Amino acid sequence: MRDFDISALPEERISFSRDIFSVPVIVASLGYFVDIYDLILFSIVRIQSLKAIGLDGKELLDKGVFLLNMQMAGMLLGGILWGILGDKKGRVKILFGSIFLYSIANIANGFVNSIQSYAVWRFIAGIGLAGELGAGVTLVLENLPKHSRGYGTMIVATVGVTGAIVANYIARHFDWRIAYFIGGGLGMLLLIMRVSVYESGMYKQIEEREISKGNFFMLFNNPRRFIKYINSILIGLPIWFCVGILITFSPEFAKAMNISVSINAGEAVMFCYIGLVFGDFVSGFMSQYFKSRKKIIFVFQLLTSTTIIIYFMLHSASASLFYFICGIMGFAIGYWAIFVTVAAEQFGTNIRATVASTVPNFIRGAVIPITFLFQLTRRYFDILIAGAIVGALCMLIALYALYHLEETFHKNLDYIEE
């Protein structure tokens, strides 16, 4: 019998396996998993936790919205903060800092007994959560070669999104305080793993150089760079329209569509995120197979448009069909991995972490104007027509933004912005 000769394997296949199972990819994936776990956990335990600290009735909604806004405010601030620090101090330090902060906040959330303390710790958690994805994606992109970096971010996003599913499972089987403690404990365990993570080689090359690093205002002082930055954000609008409007308010939409069985928003979120797991994997794989980010995002945007149309045609449908479509919608908006990858690949090493951290958090923050426009439109139309109008607008803006972005699959990332 002949001995197996590893040299006979295609070089790219060997490199692929080595890259995909590298420490930066594994640690970034687990970090994003804990990130999503905490991000979704509050939405799942909102009612249970608020009742436990003495709230009831209308306060469950009003104070819940307040706490979500505090978390979002923290994420918007944290996106800028961690991004700038990631370019000034290094990607690995930010990975340590962000997960330490939101792990502490997670544990503290399990001890709260008032709405004031809950709000403070949701704000701090938001700041911590904002740094994880951007720093992780930047580190993976800069450590992996061109032919593997898309697979790396695919794994990060796919593993990360499963955190929402685990959060739903934990919340069902444990008290809400224990669920927070588990999230914090997972984060602390992850810190031990991060000791072995090495800094990006690209960043090391510019670390000691006298150049502008992490200058957030560089994204605004050059018209071409500014437009590219805005377009990088806007291609993600359909993702958060679907999650922030169609999934979050699924009980209200289902009622308007005469679906007889009461729809549970938590179940809709779970099915949506299950779809996201597969969508992130497939979109990431396809972008590598077809060697194009833009084409695959375009395909998934068209799929999202089709799914939104189907969603509004579910009049008198069964609850099982409604949840199934929520899952398909999750799959369709599962270009989140490529979305963040494209944004990071558009810019130089000296502001790449700033972009990778701010873009996903700014598009999350876009839920605020999207919901405002939705509420404004509802003054003149019923909920179904209002949702369709806002959805169509988000899709058109995203398609226009994608058209004006450059293809980045083969782009060399080892350069700086002047």
From TrEMBL:
Gene3D superfamilies, per the entry: MFS general substrate transporter like domains (1.20.1250.20)
Subcellular compartments: Membrane
Membrane disposition: Multi-pass membrane protein
Name this protein carries in UniProt: MFS transporter
Domain Major facilitator superfamily (MFS) profile: 24-409
Cellular component GO terms, alphabetical: plasma membrane
Alphabetically ordered keywords of this record: Membrane, Transmembrane, Transmembrane helix
GO molecular function: carboxylic acid transmembrane transporter activity
Gene for this chain: yjhB
Pfam families, sorted: MFS_1 (PF07690)
Transmembrane segments: 21-45, 65-85, 92-112, 118-141, 153-171, 177-197, 226-248, 268-289, 296-314, 320-343, 380-403
PANTHER family: CARBOXYLIC ACID TRANSPORTER PROTEIN HOMOLOG
Record bears the keyword Transcription regulation: no
